[in-house]
Automatic annotation (TrEMBL):
Gene3D superfamilies: NAD(P)-binding Rossmann-like Domain (3.40.50.720), ProC-like, C-terminal domain (1.10.1040.20)
Coiled-coil portions: none
A Pfam family reported for this protein in Swiss-Prot or TrEMBL: Rossmann-like
Domain of life of the native organism: Bacteria
Span of domain Putative oxidoreductase/dehydrogenase Rossmann-like: 2-108
Record's protein name: DUF2520 domain-containing protein
Domain DUF2520 residue range list: 152-254
């Protein structure tokens, strides 16, 4: 089986490296830059194609690893070739888009989304060791034979794809945003960025380890789970006014993870939800 890629970016090259290491044959990459494209040196023996039909013609499985918004454009370009691609397998690697548009080319379509962030082409393939792949059209993926070496995967129903991608984006992107939010408070203490990051890192990694070992609910510590109303009040007073809604939104979500007695729960809920609380308690924003 040969695998070709349309799109030689971070994911296209990383998946190419992974499949190559697993013993699959990489037929080539299509690139609009032609020979000017510089592939990772571990792929230096792989051919580069400037004509889509040639790359597709010599490949059994074709990965369309272009940005999400370009997938439909590539499909249209392939459609205009007027070639019968129905025997080929096509996949894309978008976690957000369904495979619907790929069906214009063939019924043998699936998507394979690595639950991993790729800021660059992977330098060490061991990064893939524990990675899970979310797969749409799981039966076609298995039929393609690509599952023979990839063992960590699960199926996603097309209609739930946006929910799946929202979950992944919240975990990956918003975790970064939440850490930045916390760090912004440390910066106001006069720490420089490097010092602040060093100071918080053990807290971050220890929290992640706790989640990994105990699960989210049992890993939760701090004033909301303890029911320390006064501490929350102090936080609300300390934060700048523009950050209070975000603190409250995160606090409300955190509160519903806890199991407080009714009275404590009500107090915390009021503090985290009601704007009127600010007026009643003279919080000076
Ligand atoms: N990066 C991540 O963390 C990550 C994680 C999981 C899944 N994904 C998914 O993986 C896919 C690719 O993302 P990426 O991060 O690898 O993107 P990327 O690094 O920007 O690479 C995209 C590649 O597609 C090529 N391309 C763009 N438009 C094209 C077109 N119309 N025809 C042919 N080639 C075209 C680009 O070439 P040019 O140089 O010619 O523009 C580039 O080589 C997306 O669906 C994304 O959602 C990404």
């Amino acid at each position: 089986m040969t695998i070709g890629f349309i799109g030689a970016g971070k994911v296209g090259q990383s998946l190419g490296l992974l499949f190559k290491e697993q013993g699959y044959s990489i037929s080539g990459y299509y690139s609009r830059h032609g020979k000017a494209l510089v592939l990772d040196q571990r792929l230096s023996q792989v051919d580069i194609y400037t004509e889509l039909d040639k790359l597709v013609g010599i490949s059994d499985v074709i990965g369309i690893t272009v940005p999400d918004d370009q997938i439909d454009r590539v499909v249209s370009e392939l459609e205009t070739q007027g070639i019968d691609f129905s025997e080929k397998f096509f996949f894309h690697s978008s976690g957000a888009h369904t495979v619907e548009s790929l069906k214009k080319l063939s019924n043998r379509v699936f998507s394979i989304h690595p639950l991993m962030a790729f800021p660059n082409v992977v330098s060490d393939l061991r990064s893939f060791d524990n990675i899970y792949f979310g797969i749409e059209n799981l039966d076609v993926f298995i039929e393609s034979g690509l599952n023979l070496k990839i063992t960590n995967y699960f199926g996603i129903q097309s209609e739930l794809k946006s929910k799946y991608h929202a979950g992944a984006a919240i975990i990956s992107n918003y975790l970064v945003a939440v850490i930045d939010f916390g760090l912004s408070q440390f910066m106001e203490l006069g720490l420089d960025a490097d010092e602040a990051q060093k100071a918080i890192w053990p807290l971050v990694s220890n929290t992640l380890d706790n989640i990994n070992i105990l699960g989210t609910k049992k890993a939760l510590t701090g004033p909301i789970v303890r029911g320390d109303v006064g501490t929350i009040e102090a936080h609300l007073n300390a934060l700048s006014k523009d950050l209070v809604p975000l603190y409250r939104a995160l606090g409300q979500y955190t509160l519903q993870m806890t199991n407080h007695q009714k009275l404590v729960h009500k107090k915390l809920e009021k503090l985290l939800e009601e704007d009127d609380y600010d007026k009643d308690h003279n919080i000076n924003f």
